[in-house]
Design brief:
By secondary structure, this protein is an alpha/beta fold. It has eight helices and six strands. About 35% of the residues lie in helices and about 15% in strands.
């Protein structure tokens, strides 16, 4: 998703926000419909979303994170995130982290090879995430592997993700104190 300031309405349309009858599957079926309706046909569970600067700006709708999780996206890597999006993601047990060098590399690489009309989303290769070493390895077409360092997740973010979100953390703490 080579776009800066991709807002929450582009990720999960506002018209679905207050529909409390949507199931997780139905939420997954409408991701990116306002930005790239073809994304769902191209992507599959297990794919990682890469974004630009200030990913998830705009409203505070948590569905912009949970719908990606329900689709089967394991994480979003972006140059930077809206702080509200990051908080919503971690509170729902969804991983997102910043790796501006990876995004810069991809932008430079894509600009040098782009022919014709730009696309809104594209497959860029295989991504392997080593959380212990805080490194993303991109295997681009042609087999070249390039490593990119990222800042490790904070202990609080790690706890939220491992537990499955804030509600699970609170339940566990209440059960331990009971």
């Amino acid at each position: 998703m080579d776009r800066d300031n991709l807002n929450t309405d582009g990720i999960f349309a506002g018209k679905h926000t207050y529909n409390d009858t949507l199931t997780p599957r139905q939420m997954a079926e409408v991701i990116f419909e306002n930005y790239d309706p073809e994304f769902r046909a191209k992507a599959k569970p297990g794919d990682v979303v890469l974004g630009g600067l200030n990913f998830g700006t705009g409203s505070s709708r948590e569905q912009a994170a949970t719908a990606l999780k329900y689709f089967g996206i394991p994480c979003v890597i972006a140059a930077s995130f809206s702080e509200t999006y990051k908080r919503n993601a971690f509170n729902n047990g969804f991983v997102c982290f910043e790796c501006p060098d990876l995004v810069g590399f991809l932008r430079n690489d894509v600009e040098q090879t782009r022919v014709g009309t730009p696309v809104k989303s594209a497959m860029v290769g295989r991504v392997e995430i080593d959380y212990k070493a805080s490194v993303v390895r991109l295997t681009a077409p042609g087999g070249v592997v390039r490593p990119f360092a990222f800042s490790p997740l904070s202990p609080v973010a790690q706890e939220l993700v491992v537990a499955g979100g804030a509600e699970a953390v609170v339940r566990r703490r209440l059960a331990a104190g009971a």
